[in-house]
Amino acid sequence: MKKFLALLLALAMIASLAACGSKTEAPATTTAATEAPTTEAPATTPAAPAVPNRAILGSSTELSGDFRWPGFGGSSAGASDQDINRLTAGYSTMETNQGGAYVWNETVVKSHSETENEDGTYTVTIELNEGLTFSDGTPVTAANYVAGVLSFSTQVSVGAGHSGKSGQSFVGYNDFYAYTGEEGTGSKVFTGVRMLSDYSFSLTVSSDFYPYYFAYTYAAVSPNPLGLVLGEGVEVKDDGEGCYLSDNFYEKNGDEYVKAAEIAANRYDVTKYPFSGAYVISNWDASTKECTMTINPEFKGNFEGQTPSIETIVYVKIIEETQLDQLKTGGVDVLSGITGGDSTKAALEIVDGENFAEVHYQRAGYGKIEFECDFGPTMFPEVRQAIAYLLNRTEFCQAFTGGYGVVVDGPYSPDFDMWHAVEDDIELIDYTFSPDNAKKVLEDGGWIYNSKGEPFVEGAGGVDSVRYKKLTAEEANALDIYGNDAGNKTFKSVANTDNITYETVEINGEYYMPLAINWFGSTPNPVTDLLSTTLANSSDLASVGMVIRATAGDFTTLLGNIYRDPSMGYAGTPIYGMLNLATGWNNAVYDYSFNWSLDPSWADYSSNKVKDPYDAAFPYDQAAEKLSYEEAMAASDGKLGMDYLSMAMVYNATNEDEYNQWWMAYIERWNQLLPDIPLYSNYYYDVYNANIENFVTSPFFGPANAILYANIKGY
């Protein structure tokens, strides 16, 4: 087993200029014999600024309230929720610079050492600077750093909805995770996590997780208030053999951990516990999706010692159709991530005046159709490929971005160094628009029946207008392992105005699934609108025997269906196999290890839930860790799966060339399985009120980062 790294968002370094008042002096007069006294004019009092020391940040991605630990141990989180976390959480031992690389945070770390041990383990020892405090003035100590590692490495945290795998790369994790509070259930002590003093601690990485291509990031740990991450009254202790938690952490009420409920509630509580970042949340309105933050006076700075100047930050949900009006009327000061041809052109028109400014950059990410790959028609690669062939992505990109974007064929940014290193050699299917190819891959995949189990006939009406596939027993019961009713046996399309419902049918003891895709799109959203006209309601879709049923809703509900989180609108049973949203990279660490594991316990780490059959035939195991790319390709007959490739990319590569080789193979296999359809990799335009000075963003440095360096003119 190896380590999955939760990706932190990058911070860029921009110098900040302070505004100041002026003083006038009358020139001194002199004579040959004596110097006349200097006459100084009275100091002038600077005029009060015409605007408040406040910035209103707007985003079309609405907030969900998941600010403390966005995503909570899973593989993805809402971008706006991450922005609030970025503004309110600080003092990580390592932070990311403008290029996305991890650097030591000297505001926090007094000293550190790294040791390769004789047994193959790797130890990082960190001494903290004293005097750091949370927003309520309580000291930040070593216990606050190790508490999260401990808490989120237990079955208690699993009861709270976390994966429980935060510390799985450290020595002693398996035994610590197995401990339930009862003797004989593992080890109460986490031997690889040490609290050496009030202001020093160490982390020892298991030899199973080292060497690692991004090993320098193991030391990136953030502090948490103890009550927030452990529940009230729990202590962190170390008697010399490793850290452990006081017994009350494991207290139970029946079969449930008492602290699990506390931790789950703390995830959405913004008032009970203090913050460690540049700002504190002073108000969160879940009904309007508006969050107000004020400066944390206790914050000593980021890794450069940078502290904020703008007193109040308000984060609001904006509607694209009216966002520029909001900007012009002062309803919002910063519009981030403006994209799309019409929106970009309209934004640039108002920047021509003196009141607004802009900064733009190639986005480190892409807009996409995302598939749920463990149920319904979208669990089959040929269906995902057919949908790609039925959408003219070149025209879609041009229509949406207006020329301010490009098409990509995999999970990469065209600015990535890895892409530039392999772009002349990589072999990718570009999925050029072709209904004929769509029909062929469907027929090759077994979508050749109608609802009666007879051969499909093009042009048939009613329920037989779509293709059906005969399922194997495993496919028919695909979701049973996740605790859902009868898996694909009960799959059906959502309701529609034609009063036709397509559903899995049983014929002579065998099950046939319809080629009906349930699609959830956020609204209002021009991408959703464009997909509706160019794909979901296109005649080409009907001609190949496929139907897409659309449901529109808010973005929180969309994420809830990806996370399968009832608190975010998920109904309890998977319905939607296709969703549209965007994704991106927050730093230069490209690591998807564990995102493709066949082990159900890692399901939370996969947003798409793909199980690559190549991995079942040639799994990534202890022997595989020693293989070079050439050796692995030979041993697998050229069939390396996504789990294997994602693991080997970071655990088998010993230099940049080897990493790039594994990366290219990973992108090629991804392109074959197509868990997403990349629609565009676009330019982002951040447009803002010119009263904001020193505001500079970049692909790894969004508005929530840049605002730390900015100031309001006159303050």
Descriptive notes:
The protein is an alpha+beta fold and 715 residues long. Among the domains are: 91-261, Dipeptide-binding Protein, domain 1; 366-590 and 675-679, Dipeptide-binding Protein, domain 3, CATH 3.10.105.10; 611-672, no CATH class. 24% of the residues lie in helices and 20% in strands. It has 21 helices and 28 strands. The strands form seven sheets. Strands 1, 12, 13, 14, 15, 16, 17, 18, 23, 24, 25 and 26 form a twelve-stranded mixed β-sheet that branches. The protein has a four-stranded antiparallel β-sheet with strand order 4-5-7-6, covered by helices on one side. Strand 12 and strand 13 (290-295) form a beta hairpin. The longest helix has 18 residues, at 656-673. The protein is globular and about 75 Å long. The model is unreliable at 1-41 (pLDDT under 50).
Topology:
Blueprint: E1 54-59, H1 79-88, E2 94-96, E3 102-104, E4 109-116, E5 122-128, H2 142-151, H3 155-159, H4 173-178, E6 193-197, E7 200-205, H5 226-230, E8 236-238, E9 243-245, E10 252-253, E11 256-257, H6 258-266, E12 279-285, E13 290-295, E14 312-317, H7 323-328, E15 334-338, H8 341-351, E16 356-362, E17 365-371, H9 381-389, H10 393-401, E18 405-406, H11 417-422, H12 435-444, E19 447-449, E20 468-470, H13 473-476, E21 505-507, E22 510-514, E23 516-522, H14 526-536, H15 539-543, E24 547-553, H16 555-563, E25 578-584, H17 613-617, H18 629-635, H19 642-651, H20 656-673, E26 676-689, E27 692-693, H21 703-706, E28 711-712
Helix pairs in contact: 9-12, 19-20
